[in-house]
Amino acid sequence: MNLMVAARIARRELRGGLKGFWIFLACLTLGVGAIAAVGTVRAAIESGLEREGAALLGGDAELRLTYRFADPDERAWMDANALAVSEIVDFRSMAVSGSGDTAERSVTQVKGVDTAYPLIGTALLEPDIPLADALEGTGDLPGAVMAPLLADRLGLSVGDTFRLGVQDFVLSAVLMREPDGAGASFGFGPRTLVRTEALANSELLGPGTLYESNYRLMLPPGIDLDAARAEALAALDGNGVRWRDSRNGAPGVSRFVERIGSFLVLVGLAGLAVGGVGVSAAVRAYLDGKTNTIATLKTLGATSGTIFAVYFIQIGLLTAVGVVLGMALGAALPLAVAPLIEANLPLPVAFTLHPAPLLEAAFYGVLTALLFTLWPLARTEQVRAAAIFRGMGNEGAGLPRLPYLALMALALVALVGAAAFWSGVPQLALASAVGILGALAVLSVAAVIIRFAARRGSRATWVRGHTALRLALGAVGGPREGAMAVILSLGLGLTVLAAVGQIDANLRNAIASDLPDRAPSYFFVDIQSSQLEGFMDRVENDPMVSDVETAPMLRGVVTAINGQNPREMGLDHWVLRGDRGLTYAATQAEGVTLTEGTWWPEDYDGPPLLSFGAEEGAELGLSIGDAITVNVLGRDITAEIANFREVDFSTGGIGFVMTMTPDALSAAPHTHIATVYAEAEAEGAILRDLATAYPNITAIRVAEAAARVAEALTAIAAATSYAAGATLLTGFMVLIGAAAAGERARVFEAAVMKTIGATRASILASFALRSALMGAAAGGVAIAAGALGSWAVITFVMETTYRFEPVSAIAIVVGGVVATLIAGLGFALRPLAARPAQVLRAQD
After folding, report:
1. pLDDT digits (tens, 9 = 90+) for 728-752
2. What does 354-398 look like in DSSP terms, one character per residue?
3. Angle, vertex CA 389, rays to CA 387 and CA 393, nearest 5
4. What are the sequence ranges of the domains in the chain?
5. Is the pLDDT confidence value at 423 over 90?
6. What DSSP string describes 305-332?
7. TM spans, by residue (predicted)?
8. Rounded-to-10 torsion of CA 10, 15, 17, 18
């Protein structure tokens, strides 16, 4: 093989232009561009979070405590090591406007602040007044500001009064932007901002009440945050203090962006796979047209290696062009829509050129092009010199040689490995890769079956007299209509869209239909022990209440597993992030199922024992006998795991990952939680009576919490649908390429049909029918593959019941038919206008 000769021949052939390769470039550009755009947006958000970390957090660092404020020694350490300190208390409560039967109530996330707040940034209020003046209040009432949504719910205007607990406040302004809102933890209600000192008489911060105290620190410039963290945790060791700094000012947002970005990249890879089908089809069509050239080169003595190199160089150069165009598209598109994205994101975004996601997309594009072009390129070896004299092609070519198959396998492994590494969720990446390969395999088998069935159907007696249908079936079953490319490309794109639609519909059904049938009406928190008897008397004696469940509740931080810090063990699980609810129980409650171990005796008075959630324990690699240390109110409690049990959070009822023996926790200050199952018409009276009798109790309506989850699902489904739309657009480009490639054959076919008396209407009907049949076939297979994939996600990942959703399925089939009709009929004008004499004379 002579590479110089191959390069010279490749350069000369490329002088003839890129005819036949515009689909190749379009598919590669769209696939790379989609992945690059998603990666660029993700990098822009992550860069903004990193750059504005201190502003998002509200300081250089934050020390967080649960259920308590810092004691004098802890506060003295903070004051000695920070330039400024701001104390914040965060909890949920009920905001009440009015009184009696006409009172309006709503859950709110209350933030109590001191005079130093905010250390960084400013609050945006309406009217535009300083926050300090707004919280000062008027007359004898302290001031407050609240989110517009909450003010609207309560029917409040600036100057009106409302209550938190038993304390009245005057609404001084509406909180349009909270300076550290993006870095805040998840809350069940809109924000209300007050002075902490104004809560002293509210009865909301009693012993055992669920609240967090956060201490924001401004540190000396240039300080080493790792060293500062180590020093803080060493000085405050054993007090349940958690550290967060400006390097991760909004961990929840950062984690969400990372996960949704990774998922969208994987959806983009499905689009790239669709583009790969188009790339392969374009290369195959191009090389089929070069059969005479290849045969001539072999006659002149060119080796198979030289010929392979000629076209490999050509495809390589075109791949480079497509990848560069895709990178340019992926970089330019986010910049073009940057104002729109920034306007809809409540956090900073740093839109600029981010090389990493562009290079990642380029790597995916190069590997995809290599994977999908090696097969048709390898077929050049099987072209015989006799083909130039006998008019033969290489339709009957067999499998490529083993080295080419090995290289294709290596490219596939590299592609999947890169997706697993860069996505940050290797299990999801591997599952997606298996799903895409499985869908391609199913679609390939379906295409073969459809071609066989169409060929047999064209010869059946029942189609006699239906000329257009018979011709359409014959064309679909023939080798030149491109049924394989159409069904693979359109089918894969529709499969992604079908899976997204089914998953979205099932999750919405689970929230809107299944959950209310099983879930409680209200979730009550912060019930003091002295209030429990009166609370139970009200709800248990209500004939419209079907069930009440209560449990003592504390919150603690897991600080050690078998004496080791979980972070040092490399564990990153949601149970270990922040504080977690825990309870105690003497006996195994009815309905609690143990999966391993035994429950402790009712009169047990030995060292603390722990019942742990079975699924969570398995994910953490825990076993019976392991020791878990939980810090509760600054005290470390180490308990041995006695059993694992099933914990079902899907019902919205009471569920704790950790349940301890009573002696371990009962003496600590704590409150109780309760779930109340009641008829809808009784909910209002229950809330009114309990809120009036016990103002400190917070009631969370489960339906409202479910609605917030539904809103999040809407955003995720919309983002995924956009990515799936890019996949469909790529598939449509492949359809156009397949239609363009078959245009010459249809010109000849139309000429023959006109010669034997066919009208333009019957010819057009034949073309339309074959397009509709292939589109319907692709849509039908996509429904089956998408339903299978969504069933797996809903059943094994979401762990809920799957139900087939027919509306989106019908839309998928209709979309497939319409897409193929548009692509097919768009290239029907030339065949219909061709004159038979001119066409037939041109044939040898």
Report:
1. 677 677 667 667 666 767 777 778 8
2. -HHHHHHHHHHHHHHHHHHHHHHHHGGGG--TTHHHHT--STT--
3. 25
4. 1-50+255-424, 61-218, 442-518+702-844, 545-678
5. no
6. HHHHHHHHHHHHHHHHHHHHHHHHHHHH
7. 21-41, 263-287, 308-341, 361-378, 399-422, 428-454, 722-742, 763-794, 806-829
8. 20
